[in-house]
C-alpha cells in the first residue's frame, strides 16, 4: 500500500517579551500569509502592553 501525506508547515521563531529589561516570556503568532507578517503582529501586540510591563512594581 502506497500512502503519503501532503502538508504545508509554516514555522517561525517566537518574539521575546521583556519586562524592565528582563526576559519574562515569548509570544508566537501564526496565520498570516508570510511569517514576517506574523512577527510584526507579535511585536505590535507586545508594544501595546510594554508600558505596563515596564511599570515599577
Summarize the structure.
By secondary structure, this protein is an alpha+beta fold. It is 35% helix and 19% strand.
Structural class: alpha+beta
- Beta fraction of the residues? 15-25%
Shape: elongated
Placed side by side, the strands forming the largest sheet appear as 1-2
Order of helices and strands: EEH
Main beta-sheet strand count, sense and barrel state: 2 strands, antiparallel
Kindly, what is the distance between the CA atoms of the first and last residues, rounded to a whole number of angstroms? 63 Å
- Please tell me the overall pLDDT: 84
Number of separate strands: 2
> Which bin fits the share of residues in helices?
25-40%
Count of all domains: 1
Number of helices: 1
Q: Which regions have little confidence, pLDDT < 50, spanning 5+ residues?
A: none
Word description of this protein:
It comes from Methylosinus trichosporium (strain ATCC 35070 / NCIMB 11131 / UNIQEM 75 / OB3b). This is Heme-binding protein. Keywords: Plasmid. This protein has 57 residues and is an alpha+beta fold. The chain has one domain (15-54). Helix content is 35%, strand content 19%. It is built from one helix and two strands. It has one helix at 35-54; strands at 15-19, 22-27. Strands 1-2 form a two-stranded antiparallel ribbon. The longest helix is centred in the last third of the chain and has 20 residues, at 35-54. The chain is elongated. The model has no long low-confidence stretch (mean pLDDT 84).
Amino acid at each position: 500500500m502506497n500512502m503519503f501525506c501532503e502538508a504545508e508547515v509554516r514555522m517561525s521563531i517566537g518574539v521575546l517579551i521583556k519586562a524592565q529589561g528582563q526576559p519574562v516570556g515569548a509570544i508566537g503568532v501564526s496565520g498570516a500569509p508570510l511569517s514576517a507578517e506574523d512577527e510584526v503582529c507579535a511585536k505590535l501586540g507586545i508594544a501595546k502592553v510594554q508600558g505596563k510591563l515596564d511599570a515599577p512594581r
